[in-house]
Amino acid sequence: MYCVELSVNYEDALMGIIKDNGVCYSAELKDRYYQETGKWIPSDVYSNWLRNKLVNGHIKVERVDVGYRYPATFIKLSTIDDRLVDRIIEHKTKLLRQQRTLTNITGKFGEELIASALSKCGCSEIETTKKKHSNIGNDRQGIDVFTKHPDGHYLGIEVKNRKPSYWLNCEQIKDDLGTITEASIAWGLDIKPAIICTFIYPKAMKKYKDEFPILATGKQYVPEENVEFYRDYRDALGANYVTTIADVNNPPEELVKNIQHYIVSWEKNKTILWVENEGVHQT
Asked: Domains plus CATH for the chain?
């Protein structure tokens, strides 16, 4: 289960990880901490630790533009010769930039894969990135996957497959629900929300688990031509995720089964599935 308790030696553990790897991307450092301790470090604790170590001169940071809204932060020991870690930063920066260019591809692939799986679960009128209905648009971005449920109502499914270790939080869910609500009003349709994601924070899971179906697979689905890159990315950056090769024309049996049970049949089962590195949880 998701855990935030920290040992008294968490500072030593973080510093040891930096020493062992030469230099760490900020998110990588948190992932590697989890791998070593089995515990997630809360964002506020991590930020305070980082700030204190910078003020005390124990670490240095280097920020590099990798194509995202904010630069990537690399953390290294203040005593290390910068020339020793330049190649590591260059390699990790290259992977981060490649991953940035693939987000739209993997995001779209995830939507198409879910749409294909829904077609095997008795759903109809399936569309991806739906922005219009009967020529009526929606001000927000389109619904990732739109479909007619076998019971007659519509489902607006938000799919999170762009990033390998994306954790869905309450704010993102609130924004996604706004998109579906506005589309429902604009189009005059009964559209019920659902979410299929890689990971979800337990706080978000607990808040929304009784309101609509949620399926957190613990996997990022990728086409075969991209799988080697994501394996390199995981190894170099310590990402906590499982990459699964999938075929849009033949979606994994496990995925189809889970969508049938946790999304399509949610009204009957009232259960959600969420997968984390420590195991599978059904709520």
From this structure: 10-80 (1.10.10.10), 104-282 (3.40.1350.10)
- Six token digits for residue 21: 């790897």
Predicted local confidence at residue 138, as pLDDT: 63
Rounded to an integer, what distance in angstroms lies between the CA atom of residue 61 and that of residue 113? 39
Total-model pTM: 0.80
Question: Nearest CA to 161 among 144, 179, 147?
Answer: 144
* C-alpha dist (Å) from residue 92 to 21, 51, 98: 12, 23, 10
What is the rounded CA–CA span in Å between residue 22 and residue 19?
5
* Cα→Cα distances 273→46, 72, 92, 118, 170, Å: 28, 32, 33, 17, 17
Q: Tell me: the pLDDT tens digits for 6-50?
A: 454 888 999 999 999 999 999 899 889 988 887 878 888 899 999
Contact 217, 276 (CB under 8 A): no
The phi and psi torsions of 142 (rounded to 5 degrees) equal -65, 160
Looking at residue 93, its pLDDT comes to 95
Nearest Cα to 224, choosing from 260, 257, 249, 255? 249
Residue 65 has phi, psi (to 5 degrees) of: -75, 120
